[in-house]
């Protein structure tokens, strides 16, 4: 066992987090061990603790990094001077690209967050609720502007986010279309379903 191998300009901690996300996705947070993570990273288990306090800290970092990225993107999109439909499309594309390009960490954040300890668990739940409300507000704004059909916005948000989380099956597919084709198909179906 030696030093943690890093690629390009990634720090050792970033490598640990990336490998932890892949391990948590594969085995689940509860079943994964720090010893397994150390083997994957190529160091003794004790060496991991020079960079990270615990397995729980890794889960905190993964979940909040993803949640904070989505919140930051939503802040940007809300501030844009464009139609509600354009804002929703941009947000959907961001979610889809996250599932395509950062699958392990997005998957872990979406499925394993329930293993967070408090206060992190309640903080993340609050952040997720706030995000869904703000996403729904974009739809409600589109309804008021007569760009979007009269629908229940919170239900629409849940349906769209669940559809995007279904990209997990695309990752397992043996007959994949390209990620770009998948994105275009999904956006077309979801946006056309909203459009008045």
Share of residues in strands: under 5%
- What's the number of domains? 2
Shape assignment: elongated
Largest sheet data: none
Please outline what is shown here.
By secondary structure, this protein is mostly helical. It has helices at residues 12-27, 34-41, 45-48, 55-79, 84-101, 103-111, 120-144, 153-165, 167-172, 179-194. It is built from ten helices and no strands.
Question: What would your notes on this structure say?
Answer:
α1 crosses α2, α1 packs across α6 and α5 packs parallel to α8. The protein has 2 domains: 37 residues, Homeodomain-like (Arc Repressor Mutant, subunit A, Orthogonal Bundle), CATH 1.10.10.60; 139 residues, Tetracycline Repressor, domain 2. With 196 residues, the protein is mainly α. The longest helix has 25 residues. The chain contains 10 helices and no strands. Helices cover 71% and strands 0% of the residues. It is elongated.
Structural topology:
Layout: H1 12-27, H2 34-41, H3 45-48, H4 55-79, H5 84-101, H6 103-111, H7 120-144, H8 153-165, H9 167-172, H10 179-194
Question: Which structural traits does this protein have?
Answer:
Tetracycline Repressor, domain 2; Arc Repressor Mutant, subunit A; elongated; mainly alpha; about 200 residues; single chain; 2 domains
